[in-house]
Amino acid sequence: MGFLSAAFLLGLAAIAAPVAIHLIHRQRYPERAFTTLRFFDKTVKHNVIQRRLIDRVLLALRIAALAALALGLARPFTGAGLGEKRLSLVIVLDNSPSMGRVRDGATLFARAQEAAGMLAAQLQ
């Protein structure tokens, strides 16, 4: 496997940006005991756990998006088809009424089809 634009692989270093931002903005609040808030303790812990899970999922998605962008711009390819000769052929035939004219015992359209078939056979 190779890359047509390997310089874009340096973009993988950009993955460090969301991780650094995540670590910088991680908030740690000091614990203070309030007697009036003791019943909310379970609710607060549940919300904190849920928020941490959401933050980690978002961080993983941001990292995956940056990695996909960098790898996509690097244009990866496999070496499977490097030695093969590739050829594309498009043949367009006119299907207008003028191609229905008969010349030398065949319509012009039939003659064009025969010529296209011969051309395709020569290229294989």
What's the number of helices?
Answer: 3
Distance N to C terminus? 29 Å
Strand content: 5-15%
Number of domains: 2
* Count of β-strands: 4
Principal-axes shape call: elongated
Helix content: 40-55%
Along the chain, the helix and strand elements come as EHHEEEH
Oligomer state equals single chain
What is the averaged pLDDT score?
83
What kind of sheet is the major sheet? Answer: 2 strands, antiparallel
Task: Give the strand order, joined by hyphens, for the main sheet.
Answer: 1-2
| Helix/strand structural class | mainly alpha
How is the topology of this model organized?
Layout lengths: L1 E2 L12 H9 L16 H33 L2 E2 L24 E2 L2 E2 H16 L1
Antiparallel strand pairs: 1-2, 3-4
